Model the fold of this input.
Amino acid sequence: MINETFVASDPKSAYEQAVEKYGTADLSIVSAKQLKYDDGVLRCEVVIAVPQVLFMEKSFGDQPLEDESNSEDEALLSEIGELKAQLEVMKDGIYQEIQAENPVISEVKALFLKKGISSVWLDDMFSSLISTGIVEDRSLLVSYLLEEIDEALKVREEDLSTPKVMMLVGPTGVGKTTTIAKLAARYAYLMDRPYKVALLNLDSYKVGAIEQIEHYADIMQIEHASVSSVEGFKEKLEAMVDYDVILIDTAGMSPYDTQKFIRTVEFVNSDIERDIEVDLVLAATVKYEDMEDIYKNFSFLNLDSVIISKFDETKHFGTLLNFMLLYDLPMSYFSVGQEVPDDLLLASKEYLLERFIGDVNEG
Ligand SMILES: Nc1nc2c(ncn2[C@@H]2O[C@H](COP(=O)(O)OP(=O)(O)O)[C@@H](O)[C@H]2O)c(=O)[nH]1
Ligand SMILES: [Mg+2]
Done:
């Protein structure tokens, strides 16, 4: 097999390029991730594996494999790449010298690093402040960074003015089903007017998943259904046209389970009338090491917002903030405990920052 990478501005288009070239039959997805390129633009890379014979046929047809001008271009490109890497090293060196000589920067950097903010983001901030007075004063620098964090965070306002289909995705056990139940109760009973809510379950992998959602739906007297095929999914959504909000619960996926991802993408991409909004449920307790994989893999689903769960289980929000800073997604809701429907809040920067500042001031 040969691995081939398709690049586009969004995951769907990259996947479609692969389908256009090879069709779906011989296509197997190796990975899908979003990356910030050197020019600052976010792009999506989908890597697929295809049989070598097919790759040669689709890529080169009858042409000879490599002509001379091609390999010259490649040599030039790789030289440019090396030069760029050398420049980066030099830039880092200069910056590190300045930083090492400035005790305020070292101290503040150590503090924010300890709280979970990444050195990539911090170095970026410091290098733009190097020639200013801000880096000479500890409290000034801390306030500056907090303000930058505040500015970078985004909140997505709740909007039920048009019918909505919301699909919650995320790793197993983060609180998707519980949050669905809270949202269902909120929309059906706790807003300015009652909205007509239905629950749809794709979580057929997890033992007890259907019973769990049925239990909530019965208590709240809300319509619910389970589907396992894309066809069934389309039929159900069509039958539910007159609902204001359809909440879709999904299988908890390990970020490494590519097959389940592709299946979920098929659901999201199926040709139905309504747009499907995809919201990533992320636990506030998320580990730094897992965060990047979660994003790279779930962003394949074109995320609309992040719902942060298990707010009540930690006092340290740096890792989470770092996630929001790096990936530029808006937050929509916070889940702050296990109680349905009470422990759900509209996302708020103040709420998150207050907790982070409390943590920073403590240490
Ligand atoms: N402490 C706390 N527990 C939560 C929260 N949200 C969900 N849980 C608990 O986390 C566990 C897994 O939740 P579930 O909704 O089944 O997760 P799913 O696998 O993503 O659907 C359950 O025991 C929930 O009660 C929260 O905000 N705080
Ligand atoms: Mg669940």
